Amino acid sequence: MEDRKPRLLLGVTGCIAAYKSVELLRFLQKASAEVRVVMTESATEFVGPATFEALTGAPVGTGLFRSAVDPIPHIALAEWCDGFVIAPCTANVMAKLAHGIADDLLTSTALACMAPLMVAPAMNVHMYENAATQANLALLKERGLYIIEPDSGYLACGDVGPGRLPEPAELAQRVMALVQESLAGELAHAEAVQDLADAKVVITAGPTREPIDEVRYLSNYSSGKMGYSLAEAARDRGAAVTLVSGPVSLSCPEGVERVMVTTAQEMLEATMEAAQDAAIVICTAAVADYRPAQVADHKLKKGQDDEALSRLQLVENPDILKTVAQAAGSDQTVVGFAAETDSVVDYGREKLAAKGADLIVANEVGPQKGFGQDTNEVTLISAQGEQSLPSMPKRQLADVIFDAILELRG
Ligand code: CTP
Hints:
Blueprint: E1 7-12, H1 18-30, E2 34-39, H2 49-56, H3 73-80, E3 83-89, H4 91-99, H5 105-112, E4 117-121, H6 125-129, H7 131-142, E5 146-147, E6 151-154, E7 160-164, H8 168-191, E8 200-205, E9 210-211, E10 217-218, H9 225-236, E11 240-245, E12 257-260, H10 264-275, E13 280-283, E14 290-292, H11 306-310, E15 314-316, H12 320-327, E16 333-340, H13 344-355, E17 359-364, E18 375-376, E19 378-382, E20 385-388, E21 392-393, H14 394-409
Parallel strand pairs: 1-2, 1-3, 3-4, 4-5, 8-11, 8-13, 11-12, 13-16, 16-17
Antiparallel strand pairs: 6-7, 9-10, 14-15, 17-19, 18-21, 19-20
Helix pairs in contact: 1-8, 3-5, 4-7, 8-14, 9-14
The structure holds cytidine-5'-triphosphate (CTP).
C-alpha cells in the first residue's frame, strides 16, 4: 500500500447530535485523516451539507442518483475509504444496517463497504433500550461491526440515560486507533513473510464461563481481541491456525479454524486435542481459575437456596497452559500471557517458571488497560531475558510476538 493519509468516510444521520459530527470531522482531520462525508436526507435538517463540503473540500452526497460524488457514488465511496464511521447513528439507520436495507447513499455505501464499519449510536434512552434496537445492535456486533457505545447523561429530549454521542475528541481517538490497526493489519497481510508456512499454531482466546445454575455464571472481562489478533497474524504468515475461543463477540477471522467452547474444562479438552501436532501453542485466554463445585439444575432462588447462594463452593479449574507445556515435545513452543494489576514483570517471571512456558507475555490489566482495549503494552519474558515493548495496536503486537517466538525456535 502506498504511503498516504488514512481515508475515512464519515456518515451523518438525522439526530440532534449531528452538530457534533462537524467537530468530529475537525478532530479526524487534525489526526491526519482525509475525510469525506455522506449524509442521510434527515441529517441535512440538522446540519447543512455546505458545512461539510467547505471543511472537506469535497462534495457531500445524500442520494444515489445524479450524484456530484461519482456516477456510482456508493461503490466509489465504499472502495475509497479505509474505514467508515457513522456518527451519530440513529435507531432507524442501525435497523437498516442490521437488515441490509440500502435505500439511500449512506446505507448503500455501508452495504458495499469492505473496510471496518464503526457505528456510534445516539438517540433517546427509550429508543436505545427498546428491544428492537438492542437486537439490531447485537446483530451488528455479532457481524463484527465496531460499536462505539453511547455515553450516559442528560439527553437533548430531557431524559437521562444512555444515548449520548461521546465527545468528538474521544470519538476521533477511537476511530483513528481502529483504522490504524486495520491498516497495519492490511500492510502486514500484504507484506507478510510466509515464515510460519506449514506450521500449525493453536491459540486460546477470550474468557471462560463457569455455570453456577441455569442462568448464572462466573466469568471475566476478556474481549478475546489479543488472541484473535494473534490468529490473524499467524494466518497471514502462512500458518494453519486453530483458535479455541471462549464466548466473545468477535467474528472468526477468515481462513482460521475456530472451536467455540464455554468452560475451562471444554477449553482444556479442545486445546489438548488441537495441540498434539502443533508447532506453537499460545494461551491468551483469561481462564476462570475456579468453578462452582456444583452446578444447580434449576435457578437458585432467594428464600429457598440461601445457603447455596450465599456460600458458593468453588473448586480449582485445570491450568491449560501448564498442562499443554507439560505435555509438549522439545520441538513445540508454548507461550502464555500474564495479566497482572501490579508487579507485572516479577509475576511474569514467576509464571514462566511455574507454568513451564517458553515465553510469557506480561501485561498490566485494569479498568482502562489490557482487557477490551485495542492496544496493549507488554514485556516479553523468556529464559533468554526480557524485552519491554511500547504500547501498540494488538494486531501489530501479534507480529512482534511471532518474531520473538521464531527467534526462540532458532
Ligand atoms: N491459564 C490457563 N489456564 C488456567 C489459568 C491460566 O491456561 N486455568 C493461562 C492463561 O491463558 C495465561 C496464563 O495462564 O496464558 C496466565 O494466566 P493468568 O490469569 O495471568 O494467571 P493465573 O495462572 O490464572 O494466576 P493468577 O490469576 O493467580 O495470577
